[in-house]
Amino acid sequence: MAILDLRCVADDVFIGSHASKNPPRTFGGxxxxxxxxxxxxxxxxxxxxxxxxxxFVNGGDTDKDIEFxxxxxxxERRFANRRxxxxxxxxxxxxxxxxxxxxxRGLEHNIEPPDVAQPDALTPVKELLRGYEDKVPxxxxxxxPIEWRYTNDPSWVMRDKGERLDYNRVxxxxxxxxxxxPTLHTATMLYxxxxxxLDSIITTHGLSWGFDRIFAATVxxxxxxxxxxxxxxxxxxxxxxxxxxxxxxxxxxxxxxRSGQPVATVVQxxxxxxxPSSRG
Length: 280
Prior knowledge:
Elements: E1 7-10, E2 13-16, H1 28-40, E3 49-56, E4 66-75, E5 79-88, E6 91-101, H2 125-128, H3 137-140, E7 146-150, H4 155-160, E8 167-174, H5 182-193, H6 199-203, E9 214-225, E10 235-245, E11 248-256, E12 262-274
Antiparallel strand pairs: 1-2, 2-4, 3-6, 3-9, 4-5, 5-6, 7-8, 8-10, 9-12, 10-11, 11-12
Helix pairs in contact: 1-5
InterPro entries: Acyl-CoA_hotdog (IPR042171), Acyl_CoA_thio (IPR003703), HotDog_dom_sf (IPR029069), TesB_ACOT8-like_N (IPR049449), TesB_C (IPR025652)
Domain Acyl-CoA thioesterase 2 C-terminal: 140-271
Pfam family, one: 4HBT_3
């Protein structure tokens, strides 16, 4: 919650910090969550977000704060649009667009969720990391504000078994009680949406982080919000990869609540480079 507590330094300008533990460059999910909070704090009406899209331009320095400059593109009774430019020392890190829409009642239909075990019957991710400390140290030592329960073997266990998997399905929720604030629940889901979504690109080929020489970086990320999420409760994140080519891969996913209703749809494109060993 500390990284989502942005500091307002001027009209529609906010400063965000990094967490106590960080990857080598600023985590994309952090930038998305902070951008969402910054934009939502400029709303003149209480409108739900319906779409979020971001293009990542440069990597961020985790030792420095980040500036979020919000541009108010539209404000109407049922609609609002915001653009957020994310910079660090004058360098553009990312640009995000958020649409807010209160549409009212209308037609409804839903995609069916996959048939998976319930989270209470599954092993916590910390236990799945035991014995793999030397293979995936970044995962083991990372800050873990999200609780994960995989319904399938995670990539490092799958790779150790010599298997392949063209999807990943994991129950997720905040590791702790969130404030009663819909913006923070959605922002936390956005933060989480940048995890596991590209995994199916490599697990389709029987590969895993840590075991194989893989470089990955997110290029763009989009989320469509269908219902307000309660991230204090378990949400199923079901992802797969429809295509990979030209050292780029697409990951797609859905968040489902415990009742099976889709909460959000995610599409992410990443640069994914695989360097086979000379013996391969």
